[in-house]
Design a protein that fits this description.
Chains A, B: Homodimer. 2 copies of one chain form a homodimer. The first copy, chain A, is about 35% helix and about 15% strand. By secondary structure, chain A is α/β, with parallel strands linked by helices. Chain A folds into 3 domains: about 20-90, Arc Repressor Mutant, subunit A; about 95-200, Rossmann fold, CATH 3.40.50; about 210-220 and about 240-270, no CATH class. The first copy, chain A, binds a DNA duplex (22 and 22 nucleotides) through helix 1, helix 3 and strand 2.
Chain lengths: ~280, ~280
DNA sequence: GGTTGTGAATAAATTCACAGCA
DNA sequence: TGCTGTGAATTTATTCACAACC
């Protein structure tokens, strides 16, 4: 091609890889910070560092959006903020409901970042009648009975579930039946939804378990010795050559969870080396 | 089964793909539920359904752990619970500290799932002197000044950061310097850490933005109450599957060619209030 | 000079499909 | 017969490296 002078995804139809989509918010955040500091342009290298990825990946990601940079110069910060916002659908308003106003639901309701960018908490819903009317984050909690009406009246298409696990699937079904097509699930359970509905989950204990897995191997060789030992022989030094200073930084909930975590040479272990590496079984 | 010495994966010691590791907690949760119902064995198909993945993936994942199933029968639930727990390092105790006891930090402190499986909240830490001594989740909040001592005394290697974004990097550095090698970051910022330290992040607004992206391309515009939204030249594109959701196989490469007319030339700064993203207030 | 954008190469993850065993 | 375990095929993601352009 090499045509277009216009900034426009020439032949680039919308086929943005999921991994790229998951990183766009990261770039957007970094760009917003630059914008607030009135930085006019930024190179892929600088922006990548700020977002915690490498520059090749960033450029490739941006290439799916179109040609928004200028060779030899970099990217115009404001323009890119706008383009990414638009791509993510943040130029429109997304009313959201939070169902389950317990500790977590209340905390999220108060979370500033919520409303920061295109999202607006349209309603807080809880099944407990005693909660009804109570103000949380300056907003009266509404009862579950009104869920359908609330969804409809506000044109809500995104729901956040912060109920106990046992109630999540049922709440999910009601949300979907009422018209919600995207769900962010904080309840530790797998939701099953009809096709066309997106679910993303945020799960504290899963994240901790993943960390524990890696942590376990930093604690020196010898895990799993109780039962079958087998010549370690491992130890193939991974390549890694991440020249970029900062180490890992890992990925989002699902989709792309990179966690570089190459166990390169870790005989170092933390200062506190007490935890028994080998469990008694 | 496999009497005698359980033959280990042999050449398969350390090489569990990251994607597999990220799913092990999911399998474990499903297995635990089965265990509680005293179900003795389960097939890959059943377990996969319960965990929200497909059976081929599940079997492949398990193959990295070893041969723990029985052909023609399935997997022994209890045995698999144990093997996965061990693999994830959950047979040992992981003391964890939570830094930043605002709304979110307090909510997490109270979160039951925390202690459920190998993890134990060793301390709650906050920078606000007014918080010191106050009980949260039945535990007195301690002051940031004591962070290093707390980490050391308790042999903490996993830290959870729930501070405002602005404080996160500094807290992170102190945690790492004190010996923490795994961090779960809830603050909306990229943490940079030395090699050997794992960071996983949980970020509400990123998740919402990803959902918004997909939402935007479902059914054109959808129920947005829309204000003076600029026409995003909606193009179709198959929704792709994401995370846990079951459906999502509809690939359908977007055909079309034409060029999306992004007529966006309006004012970019929509009606957004530009609220600074801060954590719980 | 400097930096983007992108084909080509590589790596990682997923899915297929079936041999092999209980 | 039924279901696991896994090589092979496929798809998706990342990285390389350099031509194109400012």
């Amino acid at each position: 091609m090499a045509t277009g002078r216009t900034h426009r995804p020439a032949t680039r139809s919308r086929g943005i890889p999921e991994a790229t989509v998951a990183r766009l918010p990261l770039y957007l955040r970094a760009l917003t910070a630059l914008s607030e500091r009135s930085v006019p342009t930024v190179s892929s290298e600088e922006l990548a560092t700020a977002a915690g990825v490498n520059s090749a990946k960033l450029r490739k990601d941006f290439s799916y959006l179109g040609s928004y940079g200028t060779r030899g110069v970099g990217y115009d910060v404001e323009y890119l903020v706008y383009q990414i916002s638009r791509e993510l659908g943040l130029t429109q308003d997304w009313p959201v409901v939070i169902v389950g106003i317990g500790n977590l639901g209340a905390a999220l309701s108060n979370y500033g970042g919520f409303a920061s960018r295109g999202f607006r908490v349209a309603a807080l819903i809880d099944a407990d009648p005693a909660m009804a009317g109570k103000p949380v984050a300056g907003m009266p909690v509404q009862h579950m009975d009104d869920l359908e009406r609330i969804i409809t009246d506000n044109g809500v298409s995104i729901g956040v579930i912060t109920t106990p696990a046992g109630a999540a699937q049922q709440v999910c079904e009601r949300l979907v039946a009422a018209g919600v097509t995207s769900i962010l699930n904080f309840a530790p359970t797998v939701l099953s939804v009809p096709e066309g509905v997106d679910v993303r989950k945020v799960d504290l204990s899963i994240e901790l378990q993943i960390l524990a897995f890696h942590e376990q191997r930093k604690a020196g060789e010898g895990a799993a010795a109780a039962e079958a030992a087998l010549p370690p022989a491992a130890r193939e030094s991974a390549v890694d050559g991440t020249s970029t200073a900062s180490g890992t930084s890992s990925g989002a909930a699902n989709t792309a969870s990179d966690t570089a975590a190459n166990t390169a040479s870790d005989e170092r272990k933390g200062p506190d080396g007490e935890v028994p590496a080998v469990m008694p079984a």
